[in-house]
Automatic annotation (TrEMBL):
Any matching Pfam family: ABC_tran
Source organism of this protein record: Engelhardtia mirabilis
Name the UniProt record assigns to this protein: Putative ABC transporter ATP-binding protein YxlF
InterPro entries: AAA+_ATPase (IPR003593), ABC_transporter-like_ATP-bd (IPR003439), P-loop_NTPase (IPR027417)
Keyword field contains Cell membrane: no
One MF annotation (Gene Ontology) recorded for this entry: ATP binding
EC number, as in UniProt: 3.6.3.-
């Protein structure tokens, strides 16, 4: 549904995107993460035809965004980070205007406004001026304009930023619901938001894609390491642990308090490895003080993949 290849973009001498490639299948809800300045908004603006890349190809719902911008734009609903609402307009007039821009006939516009009015819970706001609304309601109007043409693809740039917890919960629930019928690319700095609504995550850093993982794969890698703290001589303990079946690698020993030593063990995912580790330690008569599985979380994936890029720069 979205295909991006070899995307580059510079602002003057500053290279914001340095060759970005990814594909998103129909029906996926994908989290788009990255540190500030990574290039997420730039990518989203290119995807939605607002900005032209220096190089690269962009295809949305079978349309080439650079060659067929109008047709491509009809397939994409875009909620920018700072929604350019015409604040002095009334909500109903604004949506009417957006419908006209999309080329919808009068009857289609009426039906579309009724649809987004319900989807975005705009009850009682159609006759109100946009600048009189709370930030939460203005964001609802922004989403309503993105949904007006009933696009196959939704591109949402930090949609819940600055909203109160109730609005955040409501908007996340709506995004999850929309994700059942639409392809969604969601940029956010809030990792639990991604965990709640997305099935996959793309991480951008320094204008390059540094990670592309399904949330399921991140969850499944939870048993990849064990943290062991035991009271034993470091050298002998290292040798013992390295010989346990299922232990792929033993990290450097770290001395901790009270004559204990700590190791991080990379393990092969066999669920009985921790049992074998504790049995091996018991066989030596050493005290096992702590044995924990280290969980690979979205936060640790984010930190690991973005730190690597910062180091390279
Ligand atoms: N119009 C512009 N003129 C000059 N530089 C720009 C412009 N827009 C973005 N940049 C720069 O390009 C880089 C990428 O910006 P972009 O807004 O795409 O990042 P982002 O990942 O969306 O960041 P954030 O999470 O802070 O919103 C940044 O270094 C930014 O300062």
């Amino acid at each position: 549904m979205i295909r991006v290849s070899g995307l580059t973009k510079s602002y003057g001498a500053h290279r914001a995107l340095a060759g970005v490639d990814f594909e998103i299948e129909a029906g996926e809800v994908v989290g788009f993460l990255g540190p500030n300045g990574a290039g997420k908004s730039t990518t989203m603006r290119i995807l939605t035809g607002v900005l032209r890349p220096d190089e690269g190809q962009v295809n949305v719902a079978g349309r080439d965004v650079l060659r067929e911008p109008l047709q491509a734009r009809r397939q994409v609903g875009y909620l920018p980070e700072h929604t350019p609402l015409y604040r002095r307009m009334r909500v109903g007039d604004y949506l009417e205007f957006v419908g006209q821009v999309h080329g919808l006939a009068r009857r289609e516009r009426r039906a579309a406004i009724a649809r987004v009015h319900g989807q975005c819970s705009l009850e009682g706001t159609l006759r109100r001026r946009i600048d009189e609304l709370s930030k939460g309601y203005r964001q609802r109007v922004g989403l309503a304009q993105a949904l007006l043409s009933d696009p196959a693809v939704l591109v949402l740039d930090e949609p819940t930023s600055g909203l109160d917890p109730n609005e955040v919960a409501r908007l996340r629930a709506l995004i999850a619901e929309l994700g059942q019928t639409k392809t969604v690319l969601l940029s956010t700095h809030v990792l639990p938001e991604v965990e709640e609504v997305c099935s996959r995550v793309l991480i951008l850093a320094g204008g390059r894609l540094v990670a592309d993982d399904s949330l399921e794969a991140i969850g499944a890698s939870q048993s990849q390491s064990l943290q062991v703290v035991l009271r034993a001589p470091a050298g002998a303990a290292h040798e013992l642990l390295a010989g346990v079946v299922g232990v792929a690698r033993v990290g450097v020993p770290r001395d901790v308090v009270d004559a204990c030593v700590a190791f991080e063990l990379a393990i092969d995912g066999d669920s009985r490895t921790s049992e074998r580790v504790s049995a091996a330690i018991a066989s030596k008569g050493w005290a096992l003080v702590e044995l924990t599985r280290r969980t690979e979380t979205l936060a640790s994936v984010f930190q690991r993949s973005t730190a690597r890029v910062v180091d390279q720069r």
